[in-house]
C-alpha cells in the first residue's frame, strides 16, 4: 500500500464542491499538487465579464499552474499532462475523462463523487438525494475506468441529511 507516501497529484475539478477538495489536498501537507485542470472561463452578465471557475480561482491564489482545455481530446492537453510525471489524478465534479488521460499517472486516476455509489451516479447527486428525501448521503472515492462511476471503490464516507439542508 502507498499509505503514507507523498504523491505528485494533478487535480481536475470545476465548481465550489471541487474547490473544497482541492483546498484540503493542498493543505494536507502530504501531497504536491502539480497543476489544476478546470473548465474554461465563461462570459457572464450584461458586461460579458469573464468568470473563472472556483477551482481556477483557488489555483491562482496558491500559485498553481492552471490548464483550461476546451476539449479533453486536445493533444496539447495530453502532452502537457504527460510531461508532469504525475502519480495520481484526483477528479471531482469535472468532465468524463477519456482513458487516454486517466491512464497517464503511474497510479491511475481517482474520482471523488458526491453520493454513496451506486446511488446517484452521474450529474447532480447532492441535489437528487435532497429532492428524493434521502436521510443520508456522502462521498465515494474510486478508481476511474471506462464505464462512468463504476471503478473499484476506495472509500465511502457517510453524512446525514437534515430537513433544512440545501445543496451548499
Give structural notes:
The longest helix is centred in the first third of the chain and has 12 residues, at 16-27. Helices cover 24% and strands 27% of the residues. The protein has 168 residues and is α/β, with parallel strands linked by helices. The strands form two sheets. Strands 5-2-1-6-7-8-9 form a seven-stranded mixed β-sheet. A two-stranded antiparallel ribbon has the order 3-4. The protein is globular and about 45 Å long.
Question: In order across it, which strands form the biggest sheet?
Answer: 5-2-1-6-7-8-9
Q: Radius of gyration in whole Å, from Cα? A: 16 Å
* Separation of the first and last Cα atoms: 34 Å
Low-confidence stretches: none
What is the arithmetic mean of pLDDT? 91
DSSP strand content: 25-35%
Largest sheet: 7 strands, mixed
Q: What is the element string, with H for helices and E for strands?
A: EHEEEHEHEHEHEE
DSSP helix count? 5
Sheet/helix structural class: alpha/beta
Principal-axes geometry comes out as globular
Helix content: 10-25%
- In total, the number of strands is 9
Give a short summary of the structure.
The chain is an alpha/beta fold and 168 residues long. It has helices at residues 16-27, 54-61, 75-83, 99-102, 125-131, and strands spanning 8-13, 32-37, 42-44, 49-51, 66-67, 88-92, 109-113, 136-143, 153-160. The N and C termini lie far apart (34 Å).
Topology:
Elements: E1 8-13, H1 16-27, E2 32-37, E3 42-44, E4 49-51, H2 54-61, E5 66-67, H3 75-83, E6 88-92, H4 99-102, E7 109-113, H5 125-131, E8 136-143, E9 153-160
Parallel strand pairs: 1-2, 1-6, 2-5, 6-7
Antiparallel strand pairs: 3-4, 7-8, 8-9
Helix pairs in contact: 1-2
Amino acid at each position: 500500500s502507498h499509505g503514507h507516501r507523498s504523491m505528485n497529484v494533478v487535480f481536475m475539478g470545476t465548481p465550489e464542491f471541487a474547490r473544497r477538495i482541492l483546498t484540503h489536498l493542498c493543505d494536507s501537507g502530504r501531497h504536491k499538487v502539480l497543476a489544476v485542470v478546470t473548465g474554461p472561463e465563461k462570459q457572464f452578465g450584461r458586461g460579458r465579464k469573464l468568470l473563472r471557475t472556483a477551482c481556477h480561482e483557488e489555483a491562482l491564489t496558491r500559485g498553481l499552474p492552471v490548464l483550461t482545455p476546451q476539449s479533453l481530446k486536445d493533444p496539447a492537453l495530453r502532452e502537457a499532462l504527460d510531461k508532469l510525471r504525475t502519480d495520481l489524478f484526483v477528479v471531482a465534479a469535472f468532465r468524463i475523462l477519456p482513458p487516454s488521460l486517466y491512464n497517464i499517472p503511474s497510479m491511475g486516476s481517482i474520482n471523488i463523487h458526491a453520493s454513496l455509489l451506486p446511488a446517484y451516479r452521474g450529474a447532480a447527486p447532492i441535489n437528487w438525494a435532497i429532492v428524493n428525501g434521502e436521510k443520508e448521503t456522502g462521498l465515494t472515492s474510486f478508481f476511474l475506468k471506462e464505464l462512468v462511476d463504476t471503478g473499484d471503490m476506495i472509500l465511502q464516507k457517510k453524512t446525514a441529511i437534515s430537513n433544512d439542508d440545501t445543496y451548499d
